[in-house]
């Protein structure tokens, strides 16, 4: 089993990488060209993906907070 410090570092790295990807996705989905460039079904899928990524980040933050207490 990994020491908590290592697990925390890995969780933070995972969260930060996901946050970066989510920021890029949000920038695209909030752009003027979003609905011009993608089909309606793709737009729905990307919006679902954005929500799931946001929830995943929340879960990672909960885990990080629990391990740092």
Please describe the structure with a list of short key phrases separated by commas or semicolons.
single chain, mainly alpha, 84% helix, 3 helices, 69 residues
Question: Would you kindly provide a brief summary of this structure?
Answer:
The protein has 69 residues and is mostly helical.
Structure description:
The chain is mainly alpha-helical. It is 84% helix and 0% strand. It is built from 3 helices and no strands. Helix 1 runs antiparallel to helix 3. The longest helix has 28 residues, at 40-67. The radius of gyration is 15 Å and the shape is elongated.
Shape: elongated
Give the uncertain stretches in residue-range form. none
Query: How much helix, percentage-wise, in residues?
Result: over 70%
Q: State the secondary-structure class.
A: mainly alpha
Number of helices: 3
- Rg value: 15 Å
The tally of beta strands, per DSSP, is: 0
Mean pLDDT: 95
Strand content: under 5%
- Span from first to last CA? 19 Å
Give me the strand/helix succession.
Answer: HHH
The main sheet comes to: none
SSE layout and pairing:
Elements: H1 4-29, H2 34-37, H3 40-67
Helix pairs in contact: 1-3
């Amino acid at each position: 089993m990994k020491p908590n410090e290592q697990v925390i570092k890995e969780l933070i790295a995972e969260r930060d990488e996901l946050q970066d990807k989510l920021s890029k996705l949000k920038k695209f989905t909030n752009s003027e060209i979003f609905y011009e460039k993608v089909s309606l079904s793709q737009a729905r899928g990307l919006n679902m993906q954005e929500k799931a990524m946001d929830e995943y980040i929340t879960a990672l933050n909960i885990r990080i907070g629990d391990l740092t207490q």
